[in-house]
C-alpha cells in the first residue's frame, strides 16, 4: 500500500518532512492500552519534549508529576514521580499513556492528550465557553512524540 | 493490575518529606480569641462510604492566611461585612423599607445561613440565600433584585454568614429538597471538559495533594463567601464552582443556574457539621 510505504520511508529517513499523521480518532491501541506506531511516523525530539512537559501552556505535566532531577518550582503530586519511567514502560506503552491514559489506567485523573471526542460539555480551552471549531487535542502528534522521546531519557537502571 | 500498582506509587509519594507539608494541618481555629470553630468533624452519614472526616479549606492554607481569618481586625473580608451592615439599615425600593424594618438586627439572623440552600414552600423550589434575599427585595421592598454573586448580594451573604460563625452547617437533604440534592450529587461526580475531571476527582480523591502550587482541599463551602488574596474581593460559591468547572476545560454553568443551585445544596450537605466560617480568607 502506498500509505505504509510512505510511513516506512519516513521512519527510516529521520527528519523527513510531511510524514503521514495519525489522526486522534484513528489511533490504534493494543489490548493493554499501548500505541505501537509513531503518531507522526518519525521519532520525537527529547529537548522539545522537555519543554512541552514543563510548560503550563502546553503539556503542564508538572502540575501533577515530579521528576526529582529536574529543577521545577512546585511540581504537583497527584500523579507518581516520573524518575526512571522509561525502565517501567516502553515507548509504545508511554505513547498509549499520553494519547489516552484511561486505556492503561482505568478511571485515572490523568487527561487524554490526543483525544477529541467523548467529552461532557467540552469547552473552548480555559474560557468557560462551549468548544467551537478550533477544538483539537491537548497536544499535537509532534508534541506527543517529543514528550515520549523526553520520557525515554528518564532511565535509572 | 497496572492501575492498582500505579495508585500505590502515587500514595507512597506523599510520604516524601517535602510533600509531608502538603497534608492538612492540625491547627485550631479560634475566632477573635473566643469562639473555637469546628474545622474537622465526622463526615455526615450520607458521605460515610466516601470519606470518614470532613475538613474546612482553612486547614489547607498557609499559617499567615489562617491567622488573617482568626481575627476580625485582620480579616480583609470584614470590610465588606461592614458595607452590608450599612445596607441592612438603608431603605430601598417603593415600599420605603430596609432589611432591618422586618428582621431587626443582623444578629437576629444568626442560624439562618447554616440551613441554606433550602426548600421554599411558596416558590416550590430550592432557594439559595441570595434567592431568599431577592424575594424580600422584589416582593416586600419593591426594590430591584441583586445580580447573582454580584457585590451587594455577596456582601449581604457575608453579613448573614458572619453572624452565624461557629454554628454548624445544617442543610436538609430529605423531603422536597431531595430531588435537587440528587441532581447536585450527580453533577458532583460527573467528569466534565477536555480534562475530564469531576469535583470528586480533585476534592474527594486528591485532597491533601498538590496540583502544581495549589494545595487541594475538600472543596467545602462552609467558609463562603471567601475573601481571596488572589483577586482581593469576596467570592461567592457559584463563582468558585464556575472557576473550577472552567479549569476542567469545560463549558461552565452560570452563577444562579439551576445546576449550580443543586450543586450548592449538595456540596453544602457535605459540610454538615463544620462551623460556618464566612467570610473566610483563602488564596
TrEMBL record, chain A:
Residues 44-155 form the Cytochrome c domain. This is Sulfur-oxidizing protein SoxX. Transmembrane segments: none annotated. Coiled coil: none annotated. Residues 1-19 form the signal peptide. It holds the Pfam family Cytochrom_C. The keyword Heme applies. Keywords: Heme, Iron, Metal-binding, Signal. GO terms for molecular function: electron transfer activity; heme binding; metal ion binding. It comes from Shimia aestuarii. NCBIfam families: thiosulf_SoxX (TIGR04485). SUPFAM superfamilies: Cytochrome c.
Automatic annotation (TrEMBL), chain B:
Its cofactor is heme. Heme c 1 binds at residues 99, 102-103, 136. It catalyses: S-sulfanyl-L-cysteinyl-[SoxY protein] + thiosulfate + 2 Fe(III)-[cytochrome c] = S-(2-sulfodisulfanyl)-L-cysteinyl-[SoxY protein] + 2 Fe(II)-[cytochrome c] + 2 H(+); L-cysteinyl-[SoxY protein] + thiosulfate + 2 Fe(III)-[cytochrome c] = S-sulfosulfanyl-L-cysteinyl-[SoxY protein] + 2 Fe(II)-[cytochrome c] + 2 H(+). Transmembrane segments: none annotated. InterPro entries: Cyt_c-like_dom (IPR009056), Cyt_c-like_dom_sf (IPR036909), SoxA (IPR025710). GO terms for cellular component: cytochrome complex; periplasmic space. Residues 1-22 form the signal peptide. It comes from the Bacteria. Residues 84-169, 184-276 form the Cytochrome c domain. Its EC number is 2.8.5.2. GO terms for molecular function: electron transfer activity; heme binding; metal ion binding; oxidoreductase activity, acting on a sulfur group of donors, cytochrome as acceptor; transferase activity. Keywords: Electron transport, Heme, Iron, Metal-binding, Periplasm, Signal, Transferase, Transport. The active site is at 244 (cysteine persulfide intermediate). One of its GO terms (biological process) is sulfur oxidation. Binds 2 heme groups per subunit. Belongs to the SoxA family. Heterodimer of SoxA and SoxX. This is SoxAX cytochrome complex subunit A. It comes from Shimia aestuarii.
